[in-house]
Design a protein that fits this description.
CATH topology: UDP-N-acetylmuramoyl-L-alanine:D-glutamate ligase
Number of helices: 9
CATH superfamily: Ribokinase
Strand content: 15-25%
Distance between the termini: 35 Å
Structural class: alpha/beta
CATH class: Alpha Beta
Radius of gyration: 18 Å
Largest sheet: 9 strands, mixed
């Protein structure tokens, strides 16, 4: 049975991040994707030039409409934008216990534009973190949620991951992509303690939507029944392949998107070569 996964996030018209990245990742990981929009953005690979928020009540209406008709096997939450939308999302999903929820606390776009009102951080922390199966902050996002300095070492990453767990989510994955060096380690904090997921840093400017893609891939794996560590490992391996193959795309002149369909398109290419 194909699983159904719902993304609650903002739109990226250039297709690299947000809802568009989520739906691509869901499809690539073999699940059926659904989308509730929280915001429209005017953006491309060079940055965000405008944001138009969806009224909070209508965000809740979208969520309720999906649940009234469709079985939801997992939820991914991305751009929330402000406190009112955060409250509306929490109110709409709270009645649905037992569904895996992956929260990617999107705060700043790749180009530096703010995507979360600072006044919403406390509402996000108080209302949505306790509902989450997993939250996936990068280093600046983890620091903002804790009102702390950005981690610069693995020890600080692990400490912040455990501190975030104390705020209510079942597990925390702090992503180390902002660390200096040739490695990009992530740390997963659960009741069993910290676990590290290693990866070599791939030299490329095409990293637009990496956070959206990773959290969506994890949600897809959880929807299919994978245990959390396996879901994280499989999603991280998928993202590494998508980043490694990003240069096969030619999209924009800034931070280009990752290649969400690298496995599928490579297979199709090989089959075409065999036929010819």
């Amino acid at each position: 049975m194909i699983r159904n996964v719902l993304s609650i996030a903002g739109s990226d018209p250039s297709g690299g991040a947000g809802i568009q990245a989520d739906l691509k990742a869901f499809c690539a990981r073999g699940v059926y994707g659904m989308a509730v929009l929280t915001a429209l953005t005017a953006q491309n690979t060079q940055g965000v030039s405008g944001v138009h928020l969806v009224p909070a009540a209508f965000v809740a209406d979208q969520i309720r409409a999906v649940f009234a008709d469709v079985r939801v096997d997992a939820i991914k939450i991305g751009m929330i934008a402000n406190a009112e939308i955060a409250d509306a999302v929490a109110d709409a999903i709270e009645p649905h216990k037992g569904i895996p929820i992956v929260l990617d606390p999107v705060m700043v776009a790749k180009g530096g534009a703010a995507l979360l009102d600072p006044s919403a951080v406390d509402v996000l922390t108080r209302r949505l973190l306790p509902l989450a199966t997993l939250i996936t902050p990068n280093l600046p996002e983890a620091a903002a949620l804790l009102h702390a300095a950005t981690a610069e070492t693995r020890a600080q990453m692990a400490h912040q991951a455990q501190s975030l767990r104390a705020l209510g989510p079942e597990a925390v994955l702090v992503k180390g992509g902002h660390l200096c060096g040739h490695e990009s380690p992530d740390v997963l904090a659960t009741t069993a303690g910290p676990s590290w997921f290693e990866a070599q840093r791939i030299p490329t400017a095409n990293t637009h939507g990496t956070g959206c893609t990773l959290s969506s891939a994890i949600a897809a794996e959880l929807a299919k029944g994978a245990a959390l560590p396996k879901a994280v490992a499989d999603a991280k391996a998928y993202l590494a392949g998508a980043v490694a193959q990003a240069n096969t795309l030619n999209v924009g002149s800034g931070h280009g998107p990752v290649q969400h369909f690298h496995e599928l398109w490579s297979m199709a290419l090989r089959e075409a070569e065999i036929r010819t």
